Amino acid sequence: MTTAVSWVVQHKERTKTEAVLRVLVLPSSMLELLQVAIEAFHTDPETDEIDETSRLVPGLQTADQSGQLSFREAFETAATAEGLGSGDLGFRVSPYLLRKSVATDIAWESGIEHGVRRRFMGHRAADDVFGRVYTPDHPELTPLAEVARVLDEMIRGSIGSLLVPTTRRIRWGHSHRNFHRAAHAEATLLAAGWSTDPDHSEDPLCDAQRVSSELRIAESTARRWMRDGTLRCVIVQDRDGVRRRWARLSEVWALRDRLADRILLPDLAEELGVRYHDLYRMSRLLSLELEQHPTSRQFEVSSEAAGRLCEEHARVRALHERSMKQAAAAGQLNLAVSTVGLMAKRGELDIDPETDSSKARFVTRASVEKCRTVRYGDSPKRRLDQATVPLADVIRFTGRSRFELLDLVRAGVLEEVPGRGTCQLTASSLGAWMTVSA
Questions:
Q1: What are 358's strand-pairing partners?
Q2: CA distances from 276 to 209, 287, 310 (A)
Q3: Rounded distance, CA 301 to CA 290, Å?
Q4: What pTM value is reported for the model?
Q5: Which CA distances in Å does 86 have to 78, 82, 102, 206, 250?
C-alpha cells in the first residue's frame, strides 16, 4: 500500500522557466487600492522605506507565510452581509467565480480582440506553437492597457471605488510581529477613506432619516438608495446592537451635487402622487429618452424631461377637473354610453378637444350639468346627486316594515328618488321624519 503525501509550498526560489516574464496590467482603481495597502502595511512609518521583499498579503503569525482561512472567513462574511451567501443565491460565491465574472465582462465588451482578452486573463492567445511559444506580449502593453481602462470604467460605474469604507479596526495583539505599525496602518486607512470612524463629528454618519432630510426626498426613497448602492454606505451597529446602514455626510452631499439636475422616475411619481407605471407610460407617449442608473437600473429623468412630465401631469389634472369621460357622464345622466356619444355628436354635450393617456373622449362637466338640469329639472328634490339612503338600510335601522315605509312615501312624508335600480329615500326627508317621530 502506498500513501500519497501532499504539502503546500509558500514560495519558490525560481520562476517556472529562466526566460519567463509576466506583466500584469491593472485598472487604476486596483492600483489605488494596492498603493494604500503598501503604504499601510509595508512602509516603515519612520523612514518611509518600502519593504519590497515582503508578501503583499502579510503573514499574521509567521513572516512571509499566510494561509487562506482568514481570507475565506472574511470573504464569506462579506458575501453574506451583501446578500450573496449560499442561502441567498442557492450556490456558493467564490473568488474563482468573481474571476469568471470579470472574464465574462471582458468577453462581451466590444472593441477588444479575442487574443487580447486571453492575454489579460493570463492565457496564451492561441493553442498552436506560434501562440504558445513564439508570441510574447506586446512590447508597450497597449492592448492590455485598453482592457484595464475598460475594467476601470466598469468599477467606477458600478461601485465607484474599490476602497469600500468599513468600520472594522486593526486588532493586533502585543505579540503580533507588526504591532508597532498598527497606529500607522490605522491612520493611513482613515486618511484614504478605506476605514471610517462612526464617531467622527466633522463627517458624521447619517441614517435614512437624515439622508432624506439632507436630500429632501422621502425616507422610503433614502432607504432604497442606501440599499441598492446609489448612496455608498457602511453597516454599523446602532445603540441597540442592530446592524444598520449609514452613509457619510460627505457622501450624501456628493450625491446631492451629482443628482442636482436628475431625479429617478419612481421618486418623481411619488412627488406628483401618481402611479409609477402611469408616469412611465406618459414618458413613452411624450417620446422622452430616459437613462438607467448604473446600479439600481431605475430610470433617471433630466430636469428638462421632469419639467415636461410635470407640465403634462398638470394638463391631465386640469382636463379631469373641467371634463369627464363619456362613460362617467353616462353614469351621471343615468343613460347608456352609446346615448351619451350620440348626444355629443348632436352637440347636446360639449366635447373636450384634449384627452389623457387612455385616448378616451371627454365631455365638459358644465355641459353634463346643463343636460342634467334640462332632463330632471333644477329642483333639489329631483337632483340625482343628493344624499340618499337605501330602503333596506332604513328598515334595518328603524325597525319599520317595508309596507309601513312605502305607505309613508305614498303619503308624501318620505321622498323616493326615481330612476334608481333599488328604492332610495332622500336623506333630507328621512331626517325630517325622524325628527318629528322623536
A1: none
A2: 23, 17, 14
A3: 6
A4: 0.42
A5: 12, 12, 20, 31, 34
DSSP 8-state assignment for residue 298: P
Asked if residue 117 lies in contact with residue 147, where contact means CB atoms within 8 angstroms, the answer is yes
- Which three three-digit cell numbers place residue 56? 503583499
User: Is the CB of residue 257 less than 8 Å from the CB of residue 250?
Assistant: no
Domain boundaries, the chain: 21-51+109-171+178-194, 196-258, 262-379, 388-437
Identify which of 231, 242, 183 has the alpha carbon closest to the alpha carbon of residue 208.
231
Q: Rounded distance, CA 299 to CA 347, Å?
A: 44
Q: Does domain 196-258 sit in CATH 1.10.1660?
A: yes
d(CA 29, CA 154): 10
* CA gyration radius, the chain: 37
What single-letter amino acid sits at 201?
S
**Rounded Cα gap, residues 118 and 115, in angstroms:** 5
Three-state SS at 43: strand
- The DSSP letter of residue 49 is -
Give the span between the Cα atoms of 295 and 400, in whole angstroms.
67
Residue 425 DSSP one-character state: E
Q: How far apart are the first and last CA of the chain?
A: 110
Q: Give the three-class secondary structure for 233.
A: coil
Residue with cell 466633522: 202
Provide the b/e sequence for 24-39 (b: ≥16 CB within 10 Å): ebebebbebbeebbbb
Q: Are 76 and 85 in contact (CB under 8 A)?
A: yes
Q: How far apart are CA 382 and CA 6, in angstroms?
A: 99
pLDDT in tens, 239-284: 556 778 888 888 888 888 776 667 788 888 888 877 888 888 888 8
- CB-based contacts of 155-160 (< 8 A; 24+ apart in sequence): 155/27, 155/29, 156/29, 157/294, 158/229, 158/294, 158/295, 159/229, 159/232, 159/295, 160/232
**Three-state secondary-structure class, residue 311:** helix
Residue 166: all three cell numbers together: 468599513
Count Cα atoms within 13 angstroms, Cβ side, for 4.
1
Q: How far apart are CA 385 and CA 388, in angstroms?
A: 9
Mean pLDDT per 10-residue segment, the chain (438 residues): 50 59 75 87 84 75 68 80 77 82 78 72 62 56 76 80 75 73 81 70 79 84 84 75 81 80 80 82 83 69 84 87 85 82 88 85 89 69 60 79 79 71 77 74
Q: What is the pLDDT of residues 184-221, one digit of tens each?
A: 888 888 788 777 765 555 778 888 888 888 888 888 88
SS3 breakdown of the chain: % helix, strand, coil, rounded to 5?
Answer: 50, 10, 40
